[in-house]
User: Fold this.
Amino acid sequence: MRNIWKIGLIIALIAALAVGGSGCTGGQRALGWSGVTLAGSELYCGTTDGRLISLNSSTGTVRWQVNLEKATGIYGSPLVVGDTVYVTSYGGRVFAVNAASGALKWSSPTPEEVKLPDAVISGLAENNGRLFYGSTDGSVYAISAADGKIVWSFKNGDKIWGTPVVDRGVVYIGSFDKKVYAISEADGRELWVFEAGGVFTSAPVIFNDTVIIGSLDRNLYCLDSATGAELWRFTAGKWFWGSPAVIGDQIYAPNTDGSVYVLGGETGQLIKEHDFGSSFAASPSIVNGQLVVAAAEDGKVVVIDDDSQQTRELALLDTTVRAPLASSGEIVFIHSQTNETIFAVNALTGARVWEYRVS
Assistant:
């Protein structure tokens, strides 16, 4: 039944994109899955078969791995808060495990709650002891980080795949109903809503007092965080699937048209287009506060220097990359689709420090 559900979800995405993803041709299945999350010297990653893995980030050796019951697959990146790793699952549950041992602390919905789980592709955000995520049932949930009990839920018009972001008491999240919502962190009230021409699949990024988010209508939007008013938009050739990266007042936005666009954060004016000829679905990472590292779907890993805007190809991985990147020091971590492998690559030299075959 779960495989049938997955097929149905893919069909639903194709249908949604046929209506809302202007500038695109053909169908598209679910892109990406769990990125890696770093906490000190440890790395955490979810797998498509429902395991949560902890590795030493320096060596790639396994510390522990745990099969999460009824998870069936993990698409959202893990979230580490203190001594706990939180992760959503395609099986509809949220899990809290001990970061040191992998021992299960709790799973949500709790046995006392009657809600039947729907698939969760969204990752988690945390603030003030609460976790926030979106579900394919069309709701945003706030649950207690202590025990997983539901605090409030907010219903929107369609499924949600993107991870929320929380800033100054407000939860921001995009939806398949082509809208971005601002929701009160305290009680789940709608504060404002912005409607675009296509669905939203990525996490918003907070830039000063604005919300930056890309849509499958080919536009990257900048919204006033207090009112939701559109301040500017930038139109590219195809989809903005991943989230942009920000260095100073410049925004780096990868697009499935093969380019990474560098925009002025205040105006959205194009500063530079870097055309790499390869589709970008993964969210980039920033290394040493200066280098933007992006990975294309064909495994091409590129670097853009924020000061000089010079580019170079860092590595060519024999794999498909769609998960968000992460970095620590000079090392960038990439979770690939083909053979599901985690790579640690030196962002200065391109040397592969280690790789770990997940599947």
